[in-house]
Structures are given as C-alpha cells and as structure tokens.
Amino acid sequence: MLGLMDAGEVGIVIAQDVSRLTRSVADFEHFLEIARESGTLICSNGGVCDPASDDVAASLGLEVEALFGAVDNRLRTRRFMAARIARAREGKAVSAPPVGFVRSVRGEWIKDPERRVQDAVARVFELYPKLGSLGKIVAYFRENGLEFPRRSRGSVKWGPCDAALIHSVLRNHAYYGAYTFMRRQSKKRSGASSVAVKFRPVHEWIVKHDHHEPYVSREMWHRIQEMLAAQRRPFRRLVGKGHALLPSLIRCAVDGCNQLMRTHYWGRDGIARTASYTHFVQGDWGAHTHRVLFPARNIDHAVSEHVLKSLTAIDDEAARTIIERDQQDRVSLERTRRRQLLDAEEDVQRARQAFANCAPEFQHARADLMAEYDAAVRRHLEVKTQLASNTAPRVSMTAADVGALVHRAQNVRQLWASPRRTNEQRKRLLRAVIREVVLHRADRAGADVEVVWHGGFRQRLRVLRAKGVEAAVAERTRDGKGTATIVNELNAEGVITAVSRPVSVPLVTRKQGHRGLRLKDERRLARQIIRQGLLDRRSRPEILRQLAAEAPRLPWDPQRLSEAIRQLRRGVGDVDPLPRVLPAEQDKQQILDLIRGALASGKTWTSIARALNDSGLQPPRGTMFTPVQVRLLYLRAHALRSFKLPSTQPDHGAANA
Ligand SMILES: [Zn+2]
C-alpha cells in the first residue's frame, strides 16, 4: 500500500481504527510521512484528516490514536501469550503437533489416523537404533522407494526424505509422548525481516510427560539421543586474528559456570593491545554478578609451555590424530569462506534484481537500490580475493610424513619459537592438540586451569601472576632453595613476568626483597640475634642454635660466630654496635675481683666457689661454679701456668686437681 501511495495512486485511506493500520508507532510515523508527501487523505473513526494540510491538531490526534493503538496491540499480544503459557502449564497443547500426530476434535493430540503416516514415522525410530546413521536411513528409504510425510499449511505432503528431516524427527520430544512448549525464543533482528531463533535454557521449558500416545518409549528415545550426540562432529571454531593464543578454546568454570570466555583486547589500536580472557555476567541492575578476568599472556604461556613439554614425548598414534585435525580445520575454514562467497553472490543477485524491477520514475528509490547494489558487489569482490589469497595448497599426509612429524615433534620447541612461525600457526598447533582449557579459579595471585587434550586426557595446571610468583618465590626461599634453582623451577612451570619475559635472577631477588627474604636481610637478622644473645648473656652454642633455626641460609659455626661478634664490636652499618664491655665480661670482671679478694684473705678454692654460687653469679659455661672451674678461670685470666695458694693450710684437693 505504501508503494501505491508513494506512486500517487491512492486518494484516501479508510481505516476503522488507526491501530489497525500499523503495529508500531515508528511505522505509523513513516506512514504519515508518505501520506503527507503524496497528499493522501486518512479517514478513521468517522473523521477525515489531511496530513498535508496545516491542521497540526488533526494529525496530532491521529498520532496519539496510533500511540494508544500500539500500546494496546502490545498488551494484547502479551495477554495472549500469558494465556497460552497458562494453558500449556496445565498440560494442554497450545501449539501445532508435528507430523505423525493430529489434533482431535477435543483438542488432544492423537496419532495420525492415516496408516501410511504412522508407519513412516515409526519406521524412522525402528531403523535408527539398528543402522545408527542418518545417511543409512535416507538410503533405506530411497532404495525401497519410500517417501516421508511433511506438513505444509495444514495438509500432509509426501516426498523423499533427507538427513535433516530425519534428524528433526529423531530429536523431537513429542514422539515419546511429551509435550514441550517455550523451548525456543525468537527475536526479530533489528532492521531486518528475518527472525533469530535460539533455544531457551532447559529449566524454562514447559514439559508435560505422557501427554499423548508415543511412537517410541522414553528410554529408547533417550538412547537415540545419546547415539546422535556421539555421532556429532565436535564444533570447530575458526582461528581469530588477535595475538591471544586461546580464544574460543578457553571456558569459564568459575562458580559452576560453563561458558566460553571472551577475548578482550585492551588499549587502542596500534598502542599496546594486551589481551585478557573475560567472562562477565550482568545482573538486573547492570552490576556484574559474575566477573572473571585473567591476562591472556599468563595462561597462553603456561598452556603452551605445558603443551610443548608434552609434545616432545609424542608418538605415531598422536601424530596421526594431529594431522587429521589439522586437515579438518583447513577444510572447515575453506568451507566457511566458500559459504561467505555464496552469500555475497546471492546478495549481488538480489540487489541487481531489485534494481531492475524498480521503475525508472522512482529516482530516489533507484539511487538507494544502486548504492545497495554497489555495496553488495564490493563485498563480493572482497570475499573473493580473500578466498583466493587464503586457499593454501592442500597437503596430503603419508606414513612417511607421520614419521617426519614425529621427528619434528622432538624439536617442536625450536619450531614454536622460530621467528618464521606466525601466531596463527601457533594457534592452529594448539587447537590441533588440545580440545579446551577450563578455567576453574582465578584471582590476583593466579589461576587454576585444566588442559583437556583431544583424547580426553585432562591435566591440572597452576598459572601464576605477579603476586602468585612472589608467594611462590617466598615459599621456595623459606624451603632453603637457592635463587638459581627457583628461577629454573618457575621457568619450567611456564611462569612469565608482567611484561611477558621469562623469570630471571634479578626478578627473584626483587621478589625476595619485597618479602624481606634477601640474604642481606637474613644477615641483618643474624646480627640482631647475636647482639641480643650477647646482651642476654646467652652462651655461644645457644646463639648458634638460634641462628641455625632463624637464619638457615647462612652457614653457621663457632668461627663464623666469633667473626660476626668481632664485626659487631667494630660496628656494622645497620645494627647498633655492642657496648664496649659486654654483660658477660662485666660478670667476669666481677668474678675475678671476688676471687682475687678471697685469695688475698686466704680462702680455699672450695669456699670461693661456694661464695660465688651464693652471690648469684654464673660461670660462662654451666650453671654452678666448681672449685676446679674457679681455679682455671683465675689461671687463664692471669695467663698463669700454675698457682699455689699462698695460704698456710694448702687445699690439697683443689691444688692437685
Ligand atoms: Zn563464568
């Protein structure tokens, strides 16, 4: 009608109600625009209005009417849908039955009374478990001259069957007696007349079991589904352009999630583009209810390092699988590009047709169509050149090649690192050997991932980020590992720094510094222990024991301890110097003074020892003074070889000892 109006062939449009004219307000605006340009009158609710006139009030009235109409339409649709859902919940069928069933007079589903239809459907469910392949069923029908019914606009049409049709029958819940509603959701694509259909999550479905007479038992139906699933070729995704190695391979499994992660490139084009794997879920209020983000470089490096390590131990069997996967990849890539080309060709055809069909007097429309046509041709050319440049010569592998591949796998590390290797090739290699990478946990310190190989073999992997590296360094340092050992271990585990460099000695030292774990720090700690020990009058063996426990990375023995004490006396930068006279030395002086005094007054060694013990003083080693010790102390302090008590009544026991 709009076309006719535009052509000036319509004088007046008569509608019972404006809401009957269009479904949405935007459409009505468009309609009004055309009516205004072509001078068409509009008659509704008994009134006539000329949109081209200056009577703004009249057309405003129409617009308001249209607005109410649109709202009314929307409400009616919603109410209609709500009623259908309510009926479906009661177990009543509100959608049309698939072929093989018909609706009875009372609205129930019954098997199609036509015997031929029943037989055809039943045959499919009988054949599949036996033949195990859709292609074989199609062949069976063809060889036996059988046809399969389809329903088209209410009536049944017979024709040859194909795999897609058989598949849709085998997958339909209705055939085991269940009625399902709300399985799919359709959304109108913006700016197009086509509709996007996708499945709703299972918990949203409305399912009524034993709703009608089945063609196949429920157990059998589920067994068939398992068989179909086993036949399904795994979905192979295309290799993208970015430098992240695992896009479309990495799946989020944090908090029971099960979604592919997106690859997000940060930074503007040309300037540092760093990739992260992300999975965000937004709640009703726009806030993230689930937010998983991990830098791609860390996972990429850890996973590829892991893969390379495993690949160096590859055998013939694995090699053959890899080759097959790689070929599948190439084929699917080419198939996709060919499909794109076909689509583009079709677009060109359609545009050309539309342009040819447009009468010469519609200048604007022709210009519009011309532009569309031009765009279609350009797109077609683009796809064509892409296809031509990307079709690499097909390689067919032989047993000898497999041998060669195994040989090459031995030095796959060089292959991987070779400057001629492109990132796309690296991605393809990863895809050829691993099915997916599952991310189980991720935080600032690191991530727990699981590498799933194509064979189904799973391996857990810990991926560390800067914070995690620091913790790992600290832990290993405390275990008494040397810096070089720590560097080697971390590199072997596929750890890299924040700027994608391997772990180095300076890095490890720096991390130790952050945690106060450098040797320098340990030396300072040791000096503090020694100083405190001396001030507390602790014995040297006691101090050595404490050093071995608290500063284990330094080798401790009595000589080193003496050396350290000498240094402390001289004064070392970061620790307070020792007092000039140590407490122990003060004690010694006191003891010697006491002995000297006692000797002068003619005491025996035994009585001197007793007096010393009574005074609360302690010998340098041991807890009690003995007469022998007292004598030795005195002799050493005065550098004497022997000493005879000056007393008139010599203490033989002590002197002889
Ligand atoms: Zn997630």
Task: Write structural notes for this entry.
The longest helix is centred in the middle third of the chain and has 42 residues, at 316-357. The strands form seven sheets. A five-stranded mixed sheet has the order 13-12-17-18-19. Strands 1-2-3 form a three-stranded mixed sheet, covered by helices on one side. A three-stranded antiparallel sheet has the order 14-15-16. It is 51% helix and 14% strand. The chain has 657 residues and is α+β, with helices and mostly antiparallel strands. Helix 17 (519-535) runs antiparallel to helix 18 (540-550). The protein is built from 23 helices and 19 strands. The chain is elongated and about 145 Å long. The chain folds into five domains: 2-89, no CATH class; 101-231, Putative Large Serine Recombinase, Chain B, Domain 2 (Hect, E3 ligase catalytic domain fold, Alpha-Beta Complex), CATH 3.90.1750; 250-440, no CATH class; 519-570; 583-656. A hairpin with a 5-residue loop joins strand 4 (101-103) and strand 5. The chain binds zinc ion (ZN). The site of zinc ion has 7 residues, from strand 16.
